[in-house]
Each structure stands twice: as structure tokens, then as C-alpha cells.
Known about the structure:
The protein is of the alpha+beta class. About 25% of the residues lie in helices and about 30% in strands.
Amino acid sequence: MGKKKxxxxxxxRVQGVLEITRSGMGFVTVKGKSIDxxxxxxxxxEALDGDTVVADIKNTRGQRPEGKITGVVERKxxxxxxxxxxxxxxxxxxxSTDKAVPDFFIRAENLNGAKNGDKVVAELLGxxxxxxxxxxxxxxxxxxxxxxxxxxxxxxxxxxxSINFPKEVLDESLHLKAxxxxxxxxxxxxxxxVLTVTxxxxxxxxxxxxxxxxxxxxxxxxxxxxxxxxxxFVRPGSALDDEAYKRACSVYxxxxxxxxxxxxxxNELCSLRPDEEKFTFSAVFTITPKGKVxxxxxxxxxxxxxxxxxxxxxxxxIESGKGELxxxxxxxxxxxxxxxxxxxxxxxxxxxxxxxxxxxDAEGRPRGVILKESKESHQxxxxxxxxxxxxxxxxxxxxxxxxxxxxxxxxxxxVPDQDKLKPxxxxxxKFGYKFDITTPKAVASSFNAMIQNVxxxxxxxxxxxxxxxxxxxxxxxxxxxxxxxxxxDNYCHFTSPIRRYPDVMVHRILRKVLTGEFPVDKSMExxxxxxxxxxxxxxxxxxxxxxxxxxxYMQDKVGEEMDGIVxxxxxxxxxxxTIEGKCEGMVNVRDLSDYDDFRHDEAEYSLVGLRTxxxxxxxxxxxxxxxxxxxxxxxxxxxxxxxxxxxQDTTKGKNKKRKS
Length: 660
């Protein structure tokens, strides 16, 4: 009698994004799962940091499951920046990154003329059999005008974006023409004789949205939100479309923009420049003087912008009531105010933010800092863009095929994480702010009440920062759970197709449903995931570039004392944001050991001294000395300066060596 066949052991397989730490340990983040999968260095195989991978779970005995990577679904990047190290018959690429990345092997025929020590951009070819080494070929030497230019190019490539467009993409864009034919006009609503303006930053080059305004005989207003019709030029299956999808968004760095589309499209064909006929896709509203939307229309249009305004110009007109087109702009602002009030009344959260920007010299080096806050001119545009986005999402959401909604790239935002919200509510309560966390709407109301009451008070910064951290991240998905932060059941991105690929997808779907088609793209969720991942990569690039500029700005201030605010805490120290310059660095807990033994109190968002009871809590003012500004690591190191007594010798300890 033969042996009984046992049941085949079922292998649990997951797919997610791999993050590799400096130590070489990997973690796979799986969508919808709260715990990452641990991947030990020997089990990472041919995956690199940021790749979407498949992993088999091989151990669940500990608190965190362990796995082994069995395949790479999608590379985060295929181009890498590094330094060439030559041997006799081959070379290696030492990759510039703070992650654990193996050196790339380069055959002699793939060096492309690179010399020893050259900084180059190389393309991953695959993995060499036998030694499990990645192999690459040099694409080009990375030329740079200066230190800043080199750093920005490295940041761009490290985050998976290309500096240049492929030749076939540029060639395709150069052959595009904006011919206003009779046939094209028949398919578009004509707004060329309607007053239309653009309002953008003073240094903007791509104007992808415009507002039209006219008063109707009824006393109501017709307000049009006109968006550059990128999908008219960028067609599915083209090299342009493939490249736009790959990039998925433009990247905005302190000294440059890395565009999603070539300049021919973004700054010429689709830029809504004054006195030029442009193809647009529009949301047109009939609105009463009291801000009630009584009718809306969606469809392709043609416009001719009358005037380009900068935000600063419009703000001056709003404040003074005087200037070119003052009557129209003031009326638009009145309606925008009402729309804004309506949003907050329905549950939107009123988080405000101040944007920190560097004043740069001709070489891109920071020479000063300016703080930009959202004013009424910005909010005017914001409200009408939100209205258009919501209207498009509402329209498409109603379209059903076989009683199901069609796949669509909604912009979603989940409710706050209860695990983050509960300790925050307790913490806010210590300042006298009551939080009702029983329902999402109650949470929103509590946040708005706190934001209103905390304005101008010492605890404002800490409570606003911590409040934002309780929030989920907005993303793209076909699973329409609504947008919690904005208080919308249906929301999408329609208004920036020059710089966001999801907006291009929205335009294409809307164009089809308006003509009675029911497009079903079974790969839409994958496209949403890709767009969300690229958006996160762009934000990471922007953060890295800003951090570089911060360190560069502070380099000549090493040794100086300055005032700051505790902006974050952890078990290994606390972060400080300087009052002047808004630059962030860290005070390491090791450097506090002479004063006390500090422990991290998570519930209080603070570090607490065991002997003295001294506390460093988020939002606390501190005096610090800048002791290091490391450009390569993009890192600032501070030393805490204790309060001194009036007669204390301020020179004491100045020459004391910093602990390592």
C-alpha cells in the first residue's frame, strides 16, 4: 500500500512596495494591511528600493511576518545616478543614495566613454547570473553647472523621474498643431467673446485653467471654469501618452520644474495665454448672487483669454476694490467666499498652511526665505476648481453600466486613523479643546472649532501639525469612498491635466460619457495606484530638494545660536525648526546625556528627563546652536542651549567637543 498524499502546503503570497533601510533590511508595505512584511537582506533577491514586488510569507511566528521576494512587478526606477569606478576590463557604478543598494557591474562596451570618477546616469539592464549583481550601462555623463544643479538632478533621478524627454516624445510633440477648423468648432461651445482671465503665480509659464464671467439678464452669473484640453493633443497609445503616464505628474523643485509633458504642449499649445484661441474642456455654472448653483454644463469649448493676472494683482484689487476688471473680480471673490463657507458648513476641514520658499540667486543658491500664505486671491481660484472637480465626479458617478459605476480615477481621502486620533484628542484636551470622535462629521467639526480658537495662541503650531498627522493621505482609486477632508461624496482631479495624468484620464472618460459611451477600463485601479505612487515620489523629491536648500542656506551659520520650535520628537532626539528661515534639524538624545537621561513619552509627544523632569514637547520654544550642516546627508545637527542665569559665564563650554 502506497503512502498517503499529504495536503500541499499553501503558500501565502502578497504584493506591495519594498522599502530598504540603510542597514539592508527590507519591508514590504501591502495596501490595506497595517503591518509590513519583513524581508531579510538574503531574501531581497533582485528587488531594489521602491520596487513593487511579490513576496512569499515564510514565517509568521513573530509580531511581524517575514517573507522572501519572488518577483518584481514594477521597477520604481530604471535609471540611477552614481560614480564610475574602473577596473582593467570593466567598471562599477557606486550609486548615490542613502539606501542599501549594491554596486552595479558595467561591461567595458557599456561604459560609453565614462572615465574613472565620472558622475553618470546609468540604466539597469538586469541581473548577472551567478553573483546576483545588477548590471548597467552608462547612458550619459551627468553634466552640471554647479553644486545645486548636480544635487537637483540627482534628486530627480533618485525618485524615478527622467531629466530629459526621449527623442520620439519630443519629435511627436513638435509635429502637433492647434488648428481651429470649422469641423473642430462644431464640436465645441464658443466662449471666445466671453470675458475670460487666468490667475496664477507671477512666475508661472503653463496656464492650465481660466475663469470666464458674465452677468445674465436674470441677475444671475454664468461662471465658466475652462481647463486646457490636453487630451485633444495627447492621444492614447502615442509616445507622448506613454511618457506622460510613466511620469504621472510634474515635479516642482525650488529652482526648476520637471514637467510631465514637453514644453511645446505645456507652455505653448495648451497654455491659456492671453489673446490666443485655445481648446479647453469646461465646467460652466449658473450661480445666483447668493452663491447657489442652479445649473451646470460640461463639455469641450474654445476660449480666448483677455487678461493674465498674478495672484498679487488680484489680491490688491480685492482689498482695494479698484483696478482693471475690479467689478468682476470682486464679484467672483464674493461667490468664492460663499462656496467656501458652504463647504465648511457641510464638514470640510479648514487646515491652513504657510508655504516656505527660498529666494534663489542665479546659481540656485538660497539667499533668503519668504513665507507665502493662502490669501483670498488663491482661495478664489481654489473654490472654483473644487466646484468643477466635484461636479465632474458627481456626473460620472451617476453613469451606470449593468447597474455598476464605470471605472474612474476618483480622488479619495479616508477618515482619520482612530489609533492616531484618540491620543491627539486627549492631548488637545489638555489645552482646553474638546474633541468629539464619535463620528467622522463630529471629528471635522471639532477640528474646525479648534483651528478657529487656537489662532494666534502658543499651542497653535503643535496642535495644527499634530492634527494634520492624524489624517490619512489622499490618493487615487476606483473605490469611491469620498473625500473626507473636503467633505465631498464624489471628487476627482479635472483641473490640471498639464501637470497631472489622472486629470487626463478624467478628461478622456468624461468626453466619452458625454457622447453616450460607457468606457470600462479594467486596468484603471492599476493606473490609479501608479499615479498615487508617482505623486508620493514627486513629494519626496520636493522634500529632499527643499532640505538640500535648507542645509545650503545654513552652512555659513555653523556655530551660531538661534531660536527655534520643537517640531517633532522620537526616542533618539527631537527636531527643531528655526524661527528665522524655517529650517529643520535635530538635537540628538546622546547630546543631552550630560544634562539628563531622556525618555520618549509618546502620549505627550515629548522627551522627558528621568532625573530633572525637563520636558521637550512639540511646540516648545528652544534655544539651539547649529553644530553641523551636512550637504551629502542633507542634514542639520543642533545642540540644545540650556537657559543661562544672568551672571553665568556665557563663554563656558564654547570649546567643548561635541560627542559622537
